[in-house]
Amino acid sequence: MDPIQLSVSLAGIAVRSQRLMIDFLTRRPDLAGLGDPAGIGRAFLNLTAKMIADPMSIAQMQLELWQEHVKLLQGTTERLFGLTSKSNQRPVATDRRFQHPAWTENVLFDYIKQSYLVYAEAILSTVNRVDGLNPKTAHKVDFYTRQFVDAMAPSNFLATNPEVLQTTIETGGENLLRGLTNLLDDLERGRGQLAINMTDLEAFRLGENVATTPGKVIFQNELMQLIQYAPSTVEVKRRPLIIVPPWINKFYVLDLRPERSFIKWVVDQGHTVFVISWVNPDERLAHKGFEDYMREGPLAALDVIGVATGEHEVNAIGYCLGGTLLAATLGYLSAQNDDRIQTATYLVTLVDFTDVGDVAVFIDEEQLAVLEERMQSRGYLEAHDMALAFNMLRANDLIWSFVISNYLLGKQPIPFDFLYWNADSTRMPAAMHSFYLRNMYHENRLAIPGGIKLAGVAIDLARDQDAHLLIVDAGGPYRTMAVDLCCDPTIQRAN
Fold it and tell me: What separation in angstroms does the CA of 465 have from each of 238, 274, 331, 334, 348?
């Protein structure tokens, strides 16, 4: 690299770094995300106490680790002296962190990789074999131990990643300079918090190459706009379709590029489609609760659709959190003997929260109290906090792979419409999110007949409903499904 150009680049980076640090110290962003650091600390103190109480088990685990490491040293020594050319590698064929050939072909990097895998397996095995922890504490310990183990992977560091070292030599370090620029860009965009850029944010424009299906806003209120899409066929199906998306992200997840757009496909089948587009709430909507989202979302939309089309009956699709709201709305309508929604299709929707996977580590009484206090001070949950929690669920894919690519290799993210949509996240009103997390994720009350009330009505998802899961036209990209769905929580949990 030209020394003068290098000096100019470094000077520019220094100025931006100083500005970002001042901004960081001024804002003092909350780095806890959805987690409660004190609660995490208590979980590991509990783990330590249990381990101390059973020293023989710990000794046994240490012996097993030593035996594994001796095997690794023996195999590495044999390769160094040419006694064998084959790595006795552990199964990492599907582990994208170690796909570069040098991780297997180079004896040193193979040893680094194998050492990491041995110790990672030993650490995870140790914490999972400790007896006496209650299931929730054990789950939390396992989750955050995996976060630590993933973070310590040798692929995440310059000196121990052969691909990064090779690129650094070939480019004279330009990759690291570009990576530092990418890091500062992400910090600047996140206003002091690291908002990892997963795609080329400049490659997409709403209405140009994503969300291009022609539609128009026919109604709006404080919480949403209702968009109508006209069918593209001569023959039009009588019953309109309403889609209720989640309000964690924007509505156009089902209308990405035309060749991937579900909404385009549906209108091409002759359906008149209505989609709820939720607002991105601020402190003015802090008081809006789950009931408000039902009243001002699907219920308001049903009234407008009836006037716009003259039809009493509709088909409905609920996606993710929008599906949970749709199910609750069906329970409300059923109690009112309102049969306007004739069929319901659920996409990645939970109504029975018995087993929510790793999301459970963020949701217990202590963490909910911390989160509610944080939301009350602002009136909403920041989109960054929600995004961080979801990224941690798949840290190697959604955090560390981009750290390597963006910051160590200095690459620019490739255009990907889904990740563009994923980055276009929204805030969550305090009242709504507290109700949702407590009554559904924490207490699983939606799956209990009468477990929650909305607008004064006890919701019973199993009450007198004849909904069917139905998507037509098996010849298209969206396969036909016709499954009886009587709003039984165990059936609706299927993704």
Answer: 22, 23, 8, 7, 20
Taking alpha carbons only, the member of 160, 167, 202, 163 closest to residue 185 is 202
CA-CA distances (angstroms) from residue 122 to 116, 119, 339, 482? 10, 5, 57, 47
Q: Which residues span the domain enclosing 166?
A: 31-173
> What spatial distance separates the first Cα and last Cα of the chain, rounded to whole Å?
52
How open is the CA angle 91-92-96, to the nearest 5 degrees?
A: 165
Tell how strand 273-278 and strand 241-244 pair up.
parallel
Chain-centroid distance of CA 307 in Å reads 37
Number of domains in the chain: 3
In a domain? residue 481? yes
Report which DSSP code applies to 405: I
Residues 117 and 158 grouped into a single domain? yes
Give the residue among 302, 332, 322 at the shortest CA–CA distance from 240: 302
Place of tokens 């582990």: 95
In contact, 243 and 274? CB cutoff 8 Å = yes
Over the stretch 154-207, which tens digit does the pLDDT of each residue have? 999 988 999 999 999 898 888 988 998 899 888 888 877 788 999 999 999 999
At 264-316, the pLDDT tens digits run 999 999 999 999 999 999 999 999 999 999 999 999 999 999 999 999 999 99
Alpha-carbon distance of 320 to 478, in angstroms, equals 18
Give me 129's structure tokens.
Answer: 């074999």
Residue 413 is given by DSSP the state: P
Report d(CA 416, CA 426) in Å as an integer: 19
How is residue 228 written in tokens?
Answer: 């109508």
Q: Is the dihedral of CA 279, 285, 287, 292 positive or negative?
A: negative
CA distance 448 to 462: 9
CA nearest to 323, candidates 476, 214, 446, 206: 446
Among residues 248, 237, 249, 242, the alpha carbon closest in space to that of 211 is found at 249
Pairing outcome for strands 241-244 and 314-319: parallel
pLDDT at 469 over 60: no
Within 364-446, strands assigned E span 380-381, 428-429
Of 356, 371, 334, nearest in space to 459 by CA:
334
Cα distances from 158 to residues 97, 106, 165, 408, in angstroms, run 13, 16, 6, 7
- Provide the annotated active-site residues: 320
Residue 366 lies in a domain: no
The pTM of the full predicted model, rounded to 2 decimals, is 0.83
Angle at 270 between CA 264 and CA 274, to 5 degrees: 60
Alpha-carbon distance of 460 to 480, in angstroms, equals 28
Whether 345 shows a pLDDT value over 60: the answer reads yes
3-state secondary structure of 248: coil
Task: Provide φ and ψ at 394, rounded to 5°.
Answer: -135, 65
Residue 374 inside a domain? The answer is no
Q: Are residues 91 and 165 in the same domain?
A: yes
Residues 211, 388, 38, CA angle at the centre, nearest 5°? 155
